[in-house]
Amino acid sequence: MGSGPISRLRxxxxxxxxxxxxxxxxSDFDREVQAHLQLLVDRFVAQGMSRKDAAAAARRQFGxxxxxxxxxxxxxxxxxxxxxxxxxxxxxxxxGRSRAFAAVAIATLGLxxxxxxxxxxxxxxxxxxxFPYKDPGRMVFLRIHDTARGPEGERQGYxxxxxxxxxxxxxxxxxxxxxxxxxxxxxxxxxxxxxxxxDVTPGTFEFFGMPALYGRxxxxxxxxxxxxxxxxxxHKTWMERFNGDRGVLNKTFVLNGTARTLxxxxxxxxxxxxxxVLIPETPVRGASTGFAGLPARWFLLGRLKxxxxxxxAAADATVIANHLAKINPQDYPAxxxxxxxxxxxxxxxxxxxxxxxxxxxxxxxxLIGCGNVANLMLARATSREKEFALRAVxxxxxxxxxxxxxxxxxxxxISGAALGVLIxxxxxxxxxxxxxxxxxxxESVIELNxxxxxxxxxxxxxxAVIFGLxxxxxxxxxxxxxxxxxxxxxxxxxxxxxxxxxxxxxMEVAVSLTLLIGAGLLMRSFVALREVHLGLEADHVxxxxxxxxxxxxxxxxxxxxxxxxxxxxxxxxxxxxxxxxSSALPPYGGEDSKxxxxxxxxxDQWHARLQNISEGYFRVLRIPFxxxxxxxxxxxxxxxKVAVVNEAFVSSYLRGEDPIGRRVKLAALEALEDPVRxxxxxxxxxxxxxxxxxxxxxxxPEVWVPYTVTGSGAQVLMVRSQQTPMALMNDVRRAxxxxxxxxxxxxxxxxxxxxxxxxxAGPRFGFLLMMIFxxxxxxxxxxxxYSVLAYATARKTHEIGIRMALGAERADVLRSVIRAxxxxxxxxxxxxxxVSLLLGxxxxxxxxxxxxPYDPVTLAGTTLLLVATGALACWVPARxxxxxxxxxxxxxx
Length: 893
Description:
The chain is an alpha+beta fold. About 50% of the residues lie in helices and about 15% in strands. The protein has 27 helices and 23 strands. Strands 1, 2, 3, 4, 5, 6, 7, 8, 9, 10, 11 and 12 form a twelve-stranded mixed beta sheet that branches. It has a six-stranded mixed β-barrel with strand order 15-16-21-18-20-19. α16 (about 495-530) crosses α24. The longest helix has about 45 residues, at about 750-795. The protein is elongated and about 120 Å long.
C-alpha cells in the first residue's frame, strides 16, 4: 500500500511543497533583527551620539529584539520579495550568458503557445460559440433522407403545406421559423442591381432574440394583409452597398417592382440565411411559387423545448412526415428517415472534422515544443551540477536551490508566453485570411481566446517548472562530494537525468512522425482531389446569374424573347469565343426530378438531375460527346422535346442498351409555374460525365433539355473568353441592360475560381495548416536531437580525447556519436509508425477516395524524411567531436 504509485506521487508532492516553503525560522529572523539594530546604532554614532545612547535610541525606534508575530510576518514578506527580486535578476543574467539556450527555449515555447492558442480560438469561435443568438444550441433543422439513395437523396426545403404542418403539429419545438430564397432586383444608377433576399416568416426576429442596430426589426403588424411594405437590411450589405450611410434608414426602395421602406439595419453578427435583405412573408396553404418560377421551398428552423433531445425531435417529425406522405405521396420517397441537424452542423458540415484534425495536430506540436524545452532544461541543469554542489557547500539549502531554478523557469515561461501571444495574434490573422468563408458560419467572429491562452500558458509553465525542478531535486538529495570530485571528464550527468532526456527525444520523434504522416496524408488527398477529372474545362469561362423581373418573365416565350437577343449581344463582345444559357451553375447539377423511361419498368423511384440549356452549352464547357449529337439551333428555337443525357444516366438506367431514340419523362417539369405538358423527351445524345455532386460523391444521372420549353428556371450565363473572365463583367452588364433595363447580374465571377472555392477550399486549408505544423514539428525535433547530442558530445570531450590519444580514428568517433543519435531517432520512428497506424482511422474522413490512412508511399516518405533530418542533426555534433584536438580534450574541464 505504501509503495503504490499514488503513495509515491503523494510523497513526491509533499517533498516539492516542503522545498518550496521559503519561511525562515524565528532564530533566523532574530539574527536579522540584531543586524538591523546594529545598523541603526552605527548610524546614530555617526551622527555624534555615544554608543550607549545610540543603542538605547535604536531599541526605542525598533522596539523589542523579540519581534511580535505581525512584525515577523511583515519582515518575512520584505525578505521574500527582496530575495525573489535578486533571484529574478540572477536568472536574467544567467540566461543572458546562455543566449542560445534562452532563445531556443523561448522560441519553442512561443511557437507551441502561439499555434495552439490560435487554433483553439478558431475552434471555439467557429464550432463551440459561433452564434450570438438566444439558445443557439437548441436551434435545429429538419431533413428528409431517402434511405434508398446517398447524400443526393436528402431534402430540407419544404412546401408551404409541409411547413405549416410541422409548425402546427409538432410537440417538441417552442418556436418554428422559416426562410425562402428571393433574388431581389432594385434600381441603382443607370441600371438595376441585384440583392440576395430572403422571405422570412412571422416571429423570426423574436426567435433569434436580436434587436436591430438601427431602426427596428420586423414586427407582427408588418405581416398583416394591407400592411405597408417594409424590409430589414443586413449590416454587411449596408456597409458594402451604402458605405454605412444611416440616411438610407426609412427610405423607400423599389424591390422586385414593390416600393418597400427600410425600417431596420441589423447588427454585424446577424447573418440568418446570409440574406442581404429580409422581407416579411406569411406562408399560406396551397401551391406557391418561389424564385424563377420554381416551387417555393421553405427552410425550417426550430428551437427545441428544454430537455428535448434531437432523437425525440426526429421521432416526432417522422410521425408528421408519415402523415404528409399519405396525403402527397409524390413528394416523399417510398422509404425515408427524418434527421435533425444543429444550426452549426448545416453550415460547417465536414469542415468540422477538418478543424478537429488541425486541433489534434497543434496539440501534437505543443507536446513536441514542451518536450524540447524539457530536454533543453534537463541538459542545462545537468551541466550545472557542480554549481549546485558549490552553492550547497557554501550554505545554500535545498529550498534555495529549488527556488533559483524555479524563478529561472518562470522567466523562460513568461518570456515564451509573451512571444506566444504575438505569434497567436499574427497567426490568427493569417488563418482568417486563408480560411474559406463559405465553410464557417457567417455570424462567427474569430478572435483571440483568453481562456485557451491561459490553458496553453499553464501547460508551458508547468513544463518549464517540472523539468526545471527535476534536476534540482535530484541534486538536492545527491552526495555533494560526487560532482565536486568529478571534473566533468566523461560525465554526461546522472543516469536518471540522461535516461529522461533520451525518453523525451524518443517521444518527440514519435509525435513528430505522427504529425508528418498526417500532413503527408492530407497532401496526398489534396493532390488526388486536384487530379479528379471534372469533365469540363473551366478556364477562361465567365459565369453569372441573370435574375429577370418575375412580373414580366413568366412564360417560355417571354424568357426566350430576352435570352436570344441577350446571347447575341454577348457573343458580339470583343474577345468572346462563345456563350450559352443554363439553369444551373457548375460544378453542381440542376433540380432533382423523378423520371420514367419508355418501355422500362421498375419498382423503386428513378431520379436524375435536370437542366435547361441553350444550344452552345457543351461547346462553352467543352464537354465531349460519347454518342449522338447536341441540340440544333432549330430545335432550341422551336422548343423541340429532345434531351441529352450523361454516361451515368445510361449506366444506371439503360445499361447495355442503345439510348439514342429512347424517351424519358421528366416529372419535375410538370410542377413548374410554366409547366410542360406531357414532358416526354427523346434522347439525341450522350455526353461524358461531368462532376455534378461534389468531388467525393458519385456523379448523378443528368438530363439536359432546351431552355425554350418553359419560362421557369434560373437564367445562368456562361461565356468562354480569350481574355481574363472578369474583364468581361462590365461589357456583359451593359449587354443585360441593353436587352432589358430591369434585369441585372448576380454573383458574377470566373468559373474556375468558383470551382476552386467550392471543391478545394476546405481540403486546401487543412493541408496548408497541417504542412505548416508538420514542418514546425520537424524543425523542433531537429533542434531537440541536435541539442541533446551536442550537449552529450561536449560533456564527453575529455573521454573522446582519451580515445583519440589511444589510437581511435576520427571515423570511429563520428560513427559512435551518429549511432547514439540514430538509436534514439529509430526508436521514436518505430513508436510513431505504430501510433500513426492505430490513429489512422481518426483522419480517414478527411481523406479523398483512393487515399488510405496506411498509404505506403506517405509512410515511407515521411519516415525517410524524419530519419534523414535526424541523421543530419546527429552529424553536426559528430563532425565537431571528430575534429577535437586530443591535447585540448585532455585539458577539457
